[in-house]
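Data card: per-record layout.
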Amino acid sequence: MCHDICRLPFWEGFRVIDHQLDDHQLHLTLTPTTSAPLCSSCLQPTPRVHDTHWRCLRDLPILGRQVALRIQGRRVDCAACGRRRERIRWADHYARLTRRLSEAVAAACSKLPVQHVAELFGLHWEAVRQQDKRRLQAVIDAQPPAAPKRLIMDEFALHKGHRYATVIMDADSRRVLWVGEGRSRMAVRAFFDWLGPERCREIEAVAMDMNTAFDLEVRKHCPHARVVYDVFHVIAKFGREVIDRVRVDEANRLRDDRPARKVVKQARWLLLRNPENLKSEAQRVSLQELLAANRALMTVYVMKATLKAIWSASSAWAWRRAWNDWIRQARESGIEPLMRFAKRLAPYWRGVLSRVRWPMHTGQLDGINNRIKVMKRMAYGYRDSDYFFLKIKAAFPGNP
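The structure for this 400-residue chain is written out next.
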């Protein structure tokens, strides 16, 4: 092998003394060219070599073939630092990949799925994931310190079997600050511990659904924050617990009238969908005929619209009148699911009232949750939750 090939520039301080070629890989053996290796701690030349050892690394492919390196490493006796490994500029300690291969893998992971990158470079999936994990952590560490004033908290399904994760976002910058497994008080407490007492005192408002665990932790750690309940979650809860229950009860009551029972049973989406979202005139006519023929369904349908309007109150006094009227009408309706819902909703009045002062909702985070689901589907799920959470935080760095 010629002298120029023996001293290739990307293996600084080493030369090739042997090479073997098989069907898939080029195997190269490298030895040091310097008599005074650098100490890995103080970076000073150290002529005293304690012993030598052999390391195996992977490097970038050459001419379409994978490259496997076998290099002779040294341990030195440094006068200042003691016994240390020799510094190799193009390979980190204990690494199985050269730096340029690691950088190429990390750059590819920013555009391609991990499995595709592993196939492209001929590496194991786990080795690629570790490189991408370090890249993502570096991206997150490079972000400026968070100083949120308003937060949005929500949850999304992590795995099947009712396993959830919580995501918390800065409402002003739209930056995902934290993602953690679970939706209990203990799960979200880690976020407030990370935020610290000083930044917790700066929080002014937090938007969420009616999750008692979130509510209690916010009140405990953020003494000046107002909890704001999201209107869409409350209306969705009303649809599940009141409209659906009344519809089923009415269908059971009409079991002897099969045509009428069928109409009521099949009207679920007509009742849950907002009037402006009905797709055709026929659907609007069907809804009007259904409500005209069934007093209980008419009542809960109108009460849903009235409840939604409470979040649009122009002042605290207007809100109080609308809230008291709604609670009174629900209690006097005689419809058991509606009365039960009003009883459960009444203690949460402060979070509903806060909407007047803080017009916040979780809609921004719902959009991010939809993108998170797409990321999960593209990867066919993630076995490492911490890795998945890093990808989420790096994907939503907020507004510049």
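Known properties of this structure: The domain at 150-230+361-395 is CATH 3.30.420.10 (Nucleotidyltransferase; domain 5). The beta strands are 14-21, 25-32, 49-62, 65-78, 82-85, 150-159, 163-170, 176-181, 205-208, 226-229.

See the next section for split statistics.
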